[in-house]
Design a protein that fits this description.
Layout (H helix, E strand, L loop, with lengths): L3 E2 L6 E2 L2 E4 L9 H13 L4 E3 L8 H13 L6 E6 L14 H15 L4 E6 L8 H13 L3 E7 L3 H14 L4 E5 L13 H7 L3 E4 L28 H4 L4 H17 L3 H10 L6 E4 L4 H7 L9 H10 L22
Length: 332
């Protein structure tokens, strides 16, 4: 495993990041434990989680997995706060109240004393960033978190946070976690240049475009039973005829290169400037093992030009920002 520096933190992290959104549904506990063991055994040292993944079940299962294998202190563990976690009016957002309460609950579910990187899952335009950053500063002072980061934030909002941190002595974001795959390259316009300028790492999500780039979908109207797109509307919106057409061309290119399309899609993300790593979310150990060789796939200038022909730099054919209120162009 060749590790990469995570922005200003200096942390060395694996380019493949284990995502845990599937833990608890559809991935059963014992399979999840096996995935964590296999991932850590393969050298993956960054594990991504969030408080809302399956209503906290993903955190609970991940915490149990790390307790069982005794590898908690061998990995960099993340979680996130922002989304609604209860029925009360204050059970969401980036208020001091929700951040502190959310962190305490995540620590209990994860069965750990600290979270290595704590993300603001989305930006909250209803709360001044000073309040959010001060709460995060207090949590770091208490030893409950070590670094802070942001996910799917507009570039200007991240820069504002960095400037506020500089002015008031708050901790600074060390990385951004945006959606990024061949179907949606919009982070190349502002987010990637911003992160490179301010030395922020980029841990992207959905490199397979929810399976579209792996050839999982043949028809946007006929969804495979049990597929992610069949589970929730927000996932369904990301499967489009235009995206499927691109995915089929990736499948054909992968055949010519004698590698699975899934590996080719992940390798493309890892070849892009500014990308520290990308999150893979296997449902089982077999899927994990299928994706691990992505690190060995080498792309030539001709290969990269082929991708650019399909979807030009900075453009998109399917929106993966459809959960971001600030992105007006949803592509749906």
């Amino acid at each position: 495993m060749q590790y990469r520096r995570l922005g200003r933190s200096g942390l060395q992290v694996s380019p493949l990041v284990l995502g845990t959104m599937n833990f608890g549904n559809p991935t059963e506990e014992e399979e999840a434990y096996a995935i964590v063991d296999a991932a850590v055994g393969a050298g993956i040292n960054l594990i991504d989680c969030a408080d809302i993944y399956n209503q906290g079940e993903a955190e609970r299962i991940l915490g149990e997995a790390l307790k069982r294998n005794g590898r908690r202190h061998h990995v960099i563990l993340t979680s996130k706060v922002y989304n609604r976690t209860g029925q009360g009016p204050n059970d969401q957002g980036n208020t001091r109240h929700h951040i502190i309460e959310g962190c305490e609950k995540s620590l209990k579910r994860l069965r750990t004393d600290y979270i290595d990187i704590y993300f603001l899952h989305r930006t909250d335009f209803n709360v001044p960033q000073e309040e959010s950053l001060e709460a995060l500063a207090d949590l770091r002072q208490q030893g409950k978190i070590r670094y802070i980061a942001c996910s799917t934030h507009p570039a200007w909002r991240t820069v504002e946070g960095l400037h506020l941190a500089e002015r008031h002595g708050y901790p600074k974001f060390v990385c951004e976690q945006p959606p990024y795959n061949l179907l949606d390259r919009r982070i190349e316009n502002e987010i990637v240049p911003m992160c490179r300028h301010y030395d922020l790492g980029i841990i992207s999500w959905s490199p397979l475009a929810q399976g579209v780039l792996a050839g999982k979908y043949q028809d946007a109207e006929q969804l495979p039973e049990g597929s992610r797109a069949s589970l929730r509307r927000v996932f369904r919106e990301r499967v489009t005829p235009a995206g499927i057409a691109v995915g089929q061309q990736i499948v054909e290119r992968a055949k010519a290169m004698a590698c699975p399309a899934s590996q080719l899609a992940v390798a493309w993300v890892l070849h892009q400037p500014g990308i520290t790593g990308t999150i893979i979310g296997p449902r089982n150990v077999d899927q994990l093992n299928d994706l691990l060789p992505s690190l060995k796939v080498k792309l030539s200038s001709e290969d990269l030009a082929f991708f650019d022909e399909l979807v030009p730099p900075g453009r998109y054919v399917t929106s993966f920002f459809n959960t971001a209120e600030w992105m007006k162009s949803k592509g749906i």
